[in-house]
Amino acid sequence: EVKLEGLALDMTTNTPVVILTPTGIDKVLPIWIGHAEAWAIAMELSGVGSKRPLTHDLLKRVIESLHATVARVEITELREQTFFAVIHLNTNGEQTRIDARPSDSIALALKTGASIFVNEDLFNIKRPEPGDEAAAGSDEPQVPPM
Known about the structure:
By secondary structure, the chain is an alpha+beta fold. Helix content is 26%, strand content 37%. It has 4 helices and 7 strands; from the N terminus they run E-E-E-H-H-E-E-E-H-E-H. It has helices at residues 35-46, 55-65, 102-112, 133-136, and strands spanning 2-10, 15-22, 29-32, 68-79, 82-91, 94-100, 115-118. A 4-stranded mixed β-sheet has the order 6-5-4-7, with helices on one face. The protein has a 3-stranded antiparallel β-sheet with strand order 1-2-3, with helices on one face. Helix 1 runs parallel beside helix 3 and helix 2 packs across helix 3. The chain starts with a strand and ends in a 10-residue tail after the last helix.
């Protein structure tokens, strides 16, 4: 299980980054996200609401109207520099898994109070250092340097 440590801005790419930290372990997982998703997450973190429902508010309302709940969200893997996530919904005792982007999953978890989980292997991804030739030939998954 992780907590959302905060949002940052990658100054080299002007891209928002969500920072996740696992409970009891001194590691972080940065995930680069879109500006709209960062805005939704920031609004939720600050407790600021909008006059009309935004996309994640709408999704929450649709889920509730179907008498479902968000059990948890899970960041599952990194493939070709892209993170993947799954939203776990409970409906009448049955669980449904829905493929989703991590940023949308995190925003929905914040809106619904659901827990956020991350595949532990994602915390062990090697980040290349500037000029690190060994990392380029490695079979280990890599993410952009921070």
